[in-house]
Design goal:
Layout (H helix, E strand, L loop, with lengths): L18 H7 L26 H9 L13 H14 L3 E5 L2 H12 L5 E5 L4 H10 L6 E5 L4 H7 L4 E7 L11 H11 L2 E5 L4 H4 L9 E5 L13 E5 L1 H15 L5 H12 L1 H20 L4 E5 L9 H7 L6 E6 L2 H10 L5 E2 L9 E3 L11 H6 L6 E5 L5 H9 L5
Helix pairs in contact: 1-3, 1-10, 3-10, 4-9
The structure holds pyridoxal-5'-phosphate.
The site of pyridoxal-5'-phosphate (PLP) has 12 residues, from helix 4.
Length: 404
């Protein structure tokens, strides 16, 4: 948000640079005092003025100056500017977590009596937020099939104000046609919000495909190393600067400067990590398809994926998440997970370390067995969020689970 560059040397024109260059360079501002090469970590709650007049001016232009770190901090604004450039958005506001970003977007845009159309296959806490929390404030939500564009049209009501989805979905990697759904959202006059957590701008740029707002849980791939929590909202200035910023300034779901600094370091390797982790995931998915104990493998990069063509159009690679069903059900899934030594047994994802989980008994354990079955989360399903280990080592770690 801060537009004042502290260094006198002109910056390159980032609009002409490729994503790899933007990821390591955009948003950096050096202090005139020290000209530090790497981004400084500004751990300060407030900022000083030279005079009472300067303070008066600062408060009159709170969006551009530095006053108080609930709403502006130089380290946080470097992260915001870099992520906005990566997503091709006009502005970005960072938040304390991914859920804070979703809550902030809803609070900045919706009011009592409004209606949301949301994909059924979104992060569990997102469904809780829309139904249990926003529901108490008179906002209603209809859930539809992510990949059925017609269902989005059918769900529209006169009071529909927002469309919300994640693509690819977790854990079955279903794909939403962002371009097709954006046309329906536009006609309905609804704000089209895409959670780009699984692909990141390295693999998918929803704003170019017609989304109005991109949401991030920066906790996942933007950090990429499993250290800190954070979130972000990217979009047009008319939404992010005019509606989101005043909400964050007043309500305070602010990202800490320390976490922003960690994300700046994470973004520098984002492109390399996403390419390598996607390629590891595809190699592992192809190997899994050949194992006799495996019924079906889900990864957008596989030719057998029902939306492989759409994924290829919309994404630069298939992403690092894959899942598969074992013929032997829960018993076989537990056996496979328990015999691994390299993979971490945890429900988290977006790390350089590969994680393995049994969705039916962990991430989806609060969903009723009938609803789980309808959603395809069967007892034999295993999800792997593939990291940066050598793929042969990962294959060898899983191999024992398929031995008779
Ligand atoms: C983890 C996650 C969130 C929530 O993010 P937090 O940083 O944990 O609050 C939202 N959306 C998706 C897709 C996620 O994976």
């Amino acid at each position: 948000m801060a537009s004042k560059s502290l260094s006198k040397r002109p910056s390159p024109d980032f609009s002409k640079l490729a994503l790899e260059s933007i990821a390591v360079r955009a948003g950096t501002k050096r202090s005139q005092e020290y000209q530090e090469h790497s981004e400084a970590l500004y751990l300060t709650s407030s900022f000083c003025f030279d005079s009472a007049e300067e303070a008066e001016k600062g408060f009159a232009n709170a969006e551009t100056g530095f006053i108080y770190s609930r709403f502006t901090n130089p380290t946080v604004s470097m992260f915001q500017d870099r992520l906005a450039a990566l997503e091709g958005g006009e502005a970005c506001i960072a938040t304390a977590s991914g859920m804070a970003a979703i809550m902030t977007t809803a609070m900045a845009h919706l009011k009592a009596g409004d209606h949301v159309v949301c994909s059924r296959s979104v992060f569990g806490a997102t469904i809780q937020l829309f139904t249990s929390i926003l529901g108490r404030f008179g906002i209603t939500t209809s859930y539809v099939d992510l990949s059925d564009s017609k269902a989005w049209q059918t769900a529209v009501q006169p009071n529909t104000r927002m469309f919300y989805l994640e693509t690819p979905s977790n854990p079955l990697t279903e794909i939403a046609d962002i371009k097709a759904i954006s046309k329906i959202a536009k006609k309905a006059n609804a704000l089209f919000v895409v959670d780009n957590c699984f692909c990141t701008p390295a693999l998918q740029r929803p704003l170019e495909l017609g989304a109005d707002v991109v949401i991030h849980s920066a906790t996942k791939y933007l950090d990429g190393q499993g250290r800190v929590l954070g979130g972000a909202i990217v979009g047009k200035k008319s939404f992010v600067t005019d509606k989101v910023f005043p909400f964050v300034r007043t309500a305070g779901p602010t990202l800490s400067a320390f976490n922003a600094w960690v994300f700046l370091k994470g973004l520098e390797t984002l492109d390399l990590r996403m390419k390598q982790q996607s390629s590891n995931a595809l190699a592992l998915a192809q190997w899994l398809e050949k194992q006799t104990g495996v019924e079906r493998v889900y990864h957008p990069g596989l030719k057998s994926h029902p939306q492989h063509a759409l994924a290829k159009r919309q994404q630069k690679a298939g992403g690092a998440i894959l899942s598969f069903t074992l013929k032997g059900g829960k018993k076989a899934a537990f056996k496979l997970i328990d015999q691994t030594r390299l993979c971490s047994i945890t429900a988290n994802l977006g790390d350089t370390r590969t994680t393995i989980t049994h969705p039916a008994s962990t991430t989806h354990c609060r969903v009723s067995p009938e609803a789980r079955k309808a959603a395809g989360i069967t007892d034999g399903l295993v999800r792997i969020a593939v990291g940066l280990e050598n793929v042969e080592d990962l294959i060898n770690d899983l191999r024992g689970g398929f031995k008779k």
